[in-house]
Automatic annotation (TrEMBL):
Compartments, as annotated in UniProt: Cell inner membrane
Protein name as it appears in the record: Cation transport protein
TM segment ranges: 12-31, 37-56, 68-89, 131-150, 181-202, 233-258, 270-292, 329-348, 391-411
InterPro entries: Cat_transpt, TrkH
Predominant cellular place of this UniProt entry's protein: membrane
Membrane topology designation: Multi-pass membrane protein
Source lineage: Bacteria, Bacillati, Bacillota, Clostridia, Lachnospirales
The species this protein was found in: Mediterraneibacter gnavus CAG:126
Length: 481
C-alpha cells in the first residue's frame, strides 16, 4: 500500500478542516463570543500537521482501492477527533468523549446528541455543529476532492469508497468534475431552502443552520424543540419537501439537468422511495388521526416525521414516542430502509432493499422452475454478480453489527426498546429513536462504553461498514513507507 501518499493526503485533508474552522470562528467573533479562540487554536494545530505531512508530495501518487478505503476510514476518524476540540477547549462540552460523540454525529449526519440544553451553546459552536452536517452529507473526501488536485483514477477510488450505495457512478468522464457537479447541485438545493425558509419568517442564521442540517440529512437544530419551536405549517412543509429531495439519488438531478427525462422518471429506486414515503404517511395519518382530531394536522405531522426518519434527517415537530405502537413500528421500518443510494441520506438504502427483495423473488422462481434462467434487474439492467455479492455481504455485516452493538449497549440496563432503537438510530444515521432516546430525549446518560459503540456505529453506518473494517486488517499495512 502507498503509505506515503496516504500520509500526504491526510495532511492536506486536515489542512482543509483547519480552513473550515475559520468559518465558525468568524461567526463566534461576529456574536462577540470568546469561544472563537477555540476554533483558532484547533485550526493552528491542524495547520502545523499540514505543514509537517501535507506539503511534500511523494513521488508515487497512485491511489488504488485499498488506499481509497484506508483514506476514507482514517480521514473520517481524524476529522471527528480534531473537530471535537473546539467543543472541548471552549468548555461548551467539557467531556472530550461527549464532544467526540457530538462531532461524529455531526460529520456522519446522524443528529443524535448528548446535549441537554442546546440553546445554551455559543452561536459559533451551534454553527459548527450544523456545518459538520453539511460537509459530511456529501462526504468529507468528496468535499476535499473539489478543492485539491488529484489524479482521476485516485479520485474515483475515493468516491467509490465514500459515496453511499451499492455502486458509485461518474456523471461525467472525470471523477473530480463529477464531484464538482455534485457539490454545485448540493449548494443550489441548500441555498434554495435557505431562501424558502427566509420567506417563512426565519432569520438568516436559523435558516442556514436548518438548511445545512436538512441538506446533510442530519437533524441538528439550534433550538431545544427542533423544528417544532417555530410552530409553522409553512416551515414544516418546506423542510419536509427538501428532506425528501435530499434523500433522492443526485444522479437523477443530473439526468434532469441534461434533459434525460426518461431516465429520471423511470428510475426504479426513486419510485420505490417515493412509494414507501406515500404509504407510510397514509398509514400513520390514519393511525394518529384520533390524537390530532383533524386530517390536516395528522397529515402535517406524519408527513414531516416520515420524511425525517426515512431520509435519516432526524428533525421532529411532534414527540412520536407518544404515538401508537403501529406508527412507531412504521417509523422503525423506514429508519432501516433509509434513503436512495447516491443521496445524503442514511439507512440500508432503497436500492439494497430492492435488490434483496428481487433476489428472494428470483430464488423462489428458481425453486419452482429449476431450468429457468432468472436474473435480478434494476431499472431494466441486470445487476452484476459482484454487486449482488456486495449487497449480501453488507446485509450480513449490518445484522452482525446490529446484534453485537445491542448486546454491548444492553450492559447499561436500559429497556430493550431503548437499546435496540439507540443502536438502529446510530447505525442508520437517523438521530432520535424511540423510548428513552426519543425525539425529546438525548444520549447523555449512556456509559462511556455505549457512547464508544454508538460512535463506531455512526461511522460504520455512514461509511457503509467496509472502509472502517478494512483498517483492522493487518495485511493492509504490510507494505513499507
Amino acid at each position: 500500500m502507498n503509505n506515503r501518499m496516504i500520509v500526504y493526503m491526510i495532511g492536506r485533508m486536515l489542512g482543509v478542516e483547519g480552513l473550515l474552522l475559520l468559518v465558525p470562528a468568524f461567526v463566534s467573533f461576529l456574536y462577540g463570543e470568546q469561544s472563537g479562540i477555540a476554533f483558532l487554536l484547533t485550526a493552528a494545530i491542524l495547520l502545523i500537521i499540514f505543514l509537517l505531512a501535507g506539503r511534500k508530495k511523494p513521488k508515487d501518487t497512485s491511489i488504488y482501492g485499498k488506499e481509497g478505503l484506508a483514506l476514507v476510514g482514517i480521514a473520517w476518524i481524524l476529522w471527528s477527533l480534531f473537530g471535537a476540540l473546539p467543543f472541548f477547549i471552549s468548555g461548551s462540552i467539557p467531556d472530550y468523549l461527549d464532544a467526540f460523540f457530538e462531532t461524529v454525529s455531526g460529520f456522519t449526519t446522524t443528529g443524535s446528541t448528548i446535549l441537554t440544553d442546546i440553546e445554551a451553546l455559543p452561536q459559533g459552536m451551534l454553527f459548527w455543529r450544523a456545518l459538520t452536517h453539511w460537509i459530511g452529507g456529501m462526504g468529507v473526501l468528496v468535499f476535499v476532492m473539489v478543492l485539491l488536485s488529484l489524479d482521476d483514477d485516485g479520485s474515483m477510488y475515493l468516491m467509490r469508497a465514500e459515496v453511499p450505495g451499492p455502486e458509485a457512478d461518474k456523471l461525467v468522464p472525470k471523477a473530480r468534475s463529477t464531484a464538482r457537479i455534485l457539490y454545485l447541485m448540493y449548494l443550489i438545493l441548500t441555498m434554495a431552502e435557505v431562501i424558502f425558509l427566509l420567506f417563512g419568517g426565519m432569520n438568516l442564521y436559523d435558516a442556514l443552520i436548518h438548511s445545512f442540517s436538512t441538506a446533510g440529512t442530519g437533524g441538528f437544530s439550534n433550538r431545544n424543540a427542533s423544528v417544532s419551536y417555530y410552530d409553522s405549517a409553512y416551515i414544516d412543509g418546506v423542510i419536509t419537501v427538501f428532506m425528501i429531495l435530499f434523500g433522492i439519488n443526485f444522479n437523477i438531478y443530473f439526468a434532469i439537468y441534461i434533459k434525460n427525462w426518461k431516465s429520471a422518471l423511470k428510475n426504479e429506486e426513486a419510485r420505490t422511495y417515493l412509494g414507501v414515503i406515500a404509504a407510510a404517511i397514509l398509514m400513520i395519518t390514519v393511525n394518529i388521526y384520533h390524537i390530532y382530531g383533524n386530517v390536516a394536522s395528522a397529515f402535517r405531522y406524519s408527513s414531516f416525521q416520515v420524511a425525517a426518519v426515512i431520509t435519516t434527517t432526524g428533525f421532529y415537530t411532534a414527540d412520536f414516542n407518544l404515538w401508537p405502537e403501529f406508527s412507531k413500528t412504521i417509523l422503525l421500518v423506514t429508519m432501516i430502509i433509509g434513503a436512495c443510494a447516491g443521496s445524503t441520506g442514511g439507512g440500508m438504502k432503497v436500492s439494497r432493499i430492492l435488490i434483496l427483495c428481487k433476489s428472494v423473488k428470483q430464488e423462489i422462481k428458481r425453486i419452482l422452475h429449476p431450468k429457468a434462467v432468472t436474473v435480478v434487474t434494476v431499472n431494466g439492467q441486470k445487476v452484476g454478480r459482484e454487486t449482488l455479492h456486495g449487497v449480501y455481504v453488507y446485509s450480513i455485516c449490518y445484522a452482525l453489527i446490529l446484534v453485537s452493538s445491542v448486546l454491548i449497549v444492553s450492559i447499561d440496563n436500559y429497556d430493550f426498546a431503548t437499546s435496540v432503537s439507540a443502536v438502529l438510530t446510530t447505525l442508520n444515521n437517523v438521530g432520535p429513536g424511540i423510548s428513552q432516546v426519543g425525539p425529546v430525549e438525548n444520549f447523555f446518560e449512556f456509559s462511556w462504553l455505549s457512547k464508544l459503540v454508538f460512535c463506531a456505529d455512526m461511522l460504520l453506518g455512514r461509511l457503509e461498514i467496509f472502509p472502517c473494517l478494512v483498517l483492522l486488517a493487518p495485511e493492509l499495512w504490510k507494505r513499507k513507507f
